[in-house]
Amino acid sequence: xxxxxxxxxxxxxxxxxxxxxxxxxxxxxxxxxxxxxxxxxxxxxxxxxxxxxxxxxxxxxxxxxxxxxxxxxxxxxxxxxxxxxxxxxxxxxxxxxxxxxxxxxxxxxxxxxxxxxxxxxxxxxxxxxxxxxxxxxxxxxxxxxxxxxxxxxxxxxxxxxxxxxxxxxxxxxxxxxxxxxxxxxxxxxxxxxxxxxxxxxxxxxxxxxxx
Length: 211
Fold this sequence. Notes:
Metallo-beta-lactamase, Chain A; 20% helix; seven-stranded mixed beta sheet
């Protein structure tokens, strides 16, 4: 299985020539014109994770693609087939098994409205919780670790990392950081990762993952 990280919170997984795209939001401007996409997973409906223009482009090149998300998003998708899921559900899509966790977005402020958000564990290896710090209560090999955002504190992300203790942590949700900001993040997160035996990796291209 091959993981490729794109801008902000978006990444893809490829296996057996099939591809799934996770959270292609409007801050993700570097997605190629894929022609082997079988699924698009959306964790929640904030535009930096759910951009209809990116979805339209993906659907135009992949007419049979399925969009997988909670009902509020699935109901908005009129371009292609959608699949509504909730926390606790699992869904098999080609060579991928998707398991869903959580249910709510972290609140930026105490009086912020509750928003649905689903974390997804893919092939029992790769976990992305969207804009939340809900662990999957299962072993995780690769964790997509949020490193910036109005809804989070670094201490929350550190506790989340420690609770999961993955083999590999990949920084995500970071398009709002400057180049200097990303360098600072890449200085202190490896220190926290080393304490629990986790490798901190900012990929320059695809990385291979067993599974």
